[in-house]
């Protein structure tokens, strides 16, 4: 028989049950070298706002109702209105943003 169960915990990110102090293997905990990070560079017109680099392993970009919405597994991270004049560029891991 296996080890007796002494404790049961739950990962706060994926809600997986963890027995006897086991470590969770969900993407939230995966080492950064094992996760494919998605990055987007948001550039605003001069004087309209600071440029922002957003990175996360589960980042998505959706456009709806005049808004560009960057979200991860927990929800919306940044929402940019279409009228702001900002440009959003996906940056691949092997690519550096142009200055």
Task: Note down, in words, how this protein is organized.
The protein has strands spanning 8-10, 17-19, 38-43, 52-56, 60-64, 67-72, 75-81, 87-91. The protein has 99 residues and is mainly beta. The protein has 2 domains: 1-34, no CATH class; 36-92, no CATH class. Strands 4-3-8 form a 3-stranded antiparallel β-sheet, with no helix packed on it. A hairpin with a 2-residue loop joins strand 5 (60-64) and strand 6. It is elongated, with a radius of gyration of 19 Å. The model has no long low-confidence stretch (mean pLDDT 76).
Secondary structure layout:
Blueprint: E1 8-10, E2 17-19, E3 38-43, E4 52-56, E5 60-64, E6 67-72, E7 75-81, E8 87-91
Antiparallel strand pairs: 1-2, 3-4, 3-8, 5-6, 6-7
Structural class: mainly beta
Number of domains: 2
Anisotropy-based shape: elongated
Total DSSP helices: 0
**Order of helical and strand elements:** EEEEEEEE
Amount of helix? under 10%
User: Whole-number radius of gyration?
Assistant: 19 Å
Mean pLDDT rating: 76
Strands of the largest sheet, in order across it?
A: 4-3-8
Low-confidence stretches are none
Q: Could you give the distance between the termini? A: 61 Å
- Sheet-strand content, in percent, reads 35-45%
Largest sheet: 3 strands, antiparallel
DSSP, total strands:
8
């Amino acid at each position: 028989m296996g080890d007796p169960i002494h404790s049961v915990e739950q990962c706060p990110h994926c809600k997986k049950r963890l027995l006897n102090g086991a470590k969770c293997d969900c993407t939230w905990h995966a080492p950064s070298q094992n996760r494919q990070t998605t990055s987007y560079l948001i550039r605003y017109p001069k004087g309209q706002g600071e440029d922002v680099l957003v990175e996360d392993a589960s980042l998505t970009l959706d456009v709806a109702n005049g808004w560009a919405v960057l979200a991860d597994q927990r929800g919306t991270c940044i929402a940019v209105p279409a009228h702001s004049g900002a440009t959003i560029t996906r940056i691949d891991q092997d690519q550096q943003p142009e200055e």
